[in-house]
Amino acid sequence: MGFQRIAVVGAGAWGSALAKAIARGGRSVTLLARDPTKAAAIARSRESPLLPGKRLEDSIRVAAVGDGNGPHDAILIAVPSQQLRAAAAAIAPALAKGTPVIACAKGIERGTRKFMTEVIAEVAPAALPAILSGPSFADDVARGLPTAVTLAAADEAAVAELAAALGSATFRPYHSTDVRGVEIGGAAKNVLAIAAGIVAGRGLGASAAAALTTRGFAELFRFGKALGARPETLTGLSGLGDLILTCSSPQSRNLSFGIAIGKGQMPNEAKAGAKLAEGAFTAPVLVEIANANGIEMPVAAAVAAILDGRFSIDEAIENLLTRPFRAEG
Predict the structure, then answer these.
(1) Residues involved in catalysis
(2) Which of 124, 184, 127 is nearest to 150 (CA)?
(3) Residues in the chain with pLDDT < 70?
(4) What was the pLDDT predicted at 266?
(5) pLDDT value of residue 1
(6) Distance of CA 36 to CAs 7, 45, 144, 271, Å?
């Protein structure tokens, strides 16, 4: 197929970092900003304001979405999950049939309960929907630090070739056809990272943090298994790997958001003071899907209840600690 011309939609920190990583692999890369004014500013400065100090390679072209650019052999959409629908719709008219469109957001659309590839399939029917997820921070990727992620699409031959096209010496995508499993790992771990942050912000100790992360992974695994995900995906980079990173590093927006809540900020105050925490949007819809399928997710449910004001932190902790004793699993 020859994926040589790659576009990245979204000129924030993650989109800019991905553009840099792909350019290092020798591909032709166009970074597309949704705002023409922002595109012009980045083209001049060669730097995204959300990724300061990380200059774009000279080979990367910067333009606005719809600004006569293309055609592209593959397109990555690096925008927040709740904005993916609009971004995919903007590129849909110019897509050639079978062009991979890769969601790089970790979340579930509120209202529709659709995963990211489902949104792409709905608004861009010519696309081959794909998902890129795994333990990765934009700053690490932009700096060229070693990073491994998972890239999934239904077409095994296409996703294998695409993984090779996007990879470089320091950015390694492993390929998979377990699209739903990769999506579930990315979405659920953000919610669980908020819980880990609350534990840290509340000063509950390292033992509680380890227990929370472990039991949170049991929920992620249970949820994924019920929705058809493969066990090796859930225990791999996009599942357990991403959960470990997000629940342990201060670079994590979701962990930081949870820490602020644990220290006493109201959820709305924490949202206003933090960078976008995808888990805050995903928590209620994740719990809705779990309840609709009879899947027990007490930690995720506690996060959702705290965020919408139904429980205080102390009430949520008491509910978790007074659950009936049971066998581990």
Answers:
(1) 189
(2) 184
(3) 1, 68-69, 270-275
(4) 83
(5) 53
(6) 16, 14, 28, 27
